[in-house]
Amino acid sequence: MFEYIGVLISVILGLGMTHLAVGMSKLIQERETIRHYWVHILWTLNVLIHILAIWWGMYWWNDLPEWTVFQYLFITVYSVVLFLLAAMLYPWDMSKNEDFRDYFFRNRVWFFSIMLVAWLIDIPETLFKSTSSLRETPTDYALFISSLLVICCVGIVTANRRVHAVLPFAWILIVVGYLSFTTLAKIAE
């Protein structure tokens, strides 16, 4: 059953990655007229890592012998939320004189709210995998998820540019550290 559901998940997450890649390529192509914002570019890379990590982690669902409609919808919604997160970073019709600092701060609350929802969805998804004996919940998961939820909340409530200059670095350190030292790094075993 997972092979069937995995195709849908792959398409949705692949569309998110495609949106990020197209956005970045437009930034490069229109570099003379578009005003870049380095924080926005870092979040683009972070969301790409986020999607890839979740996609990688979805492989554990392969060992679930029976699926319910709820599980199917839950995993599909999780994928859609990640797509929406990617979609918040770039407009569908990018103008040639787009200012990405302004664009990022105009969409900041939506971006971090959707990221918050994604991490909140990750909690029951991770716990379900543990209770279904698909994988153990890493011991550092509570600290990991709490740290990311704090980053999301800070991103929602403040428009301070100095704070926003720190958030993508904090996010990547937390995520890469967690991925490096947990079972997610060893999924293929």
Describe the structure.
The protein has 189 residues and is mostly helical. It has one domain. The protein is built from 6 helices and no strands. It has helices spanning 2-29, 38-57, 69-87, 100-131, 141-157, 161-181. Helix 1 (2-29) runs parallel beside helix 3, helix 2 runs antiparallel to helix 3 and helix 4 runs antiparallel to helix 5. The model has no long low-confidence stretch (mean pLDDT 88).
Q: Cα-atom Rg, whole angstroms?
A: 17 Å
The proportion of residues in beta strands is under 5%
Give the overall silhouette: globular
Can you count the helices? 6
Give the low-pLDDT segments: none
Structural class: mainly alpha
Topology, number of strands: 0
What kind of sheet is the major sheet?
Answer: none
End-to-end separation in angstroms reads 21 Å
Percentage of residues assigned to helices: over 70%
Number of domains: 1
Give the SSE string: HHHHHH
Mean pLDDT: 88
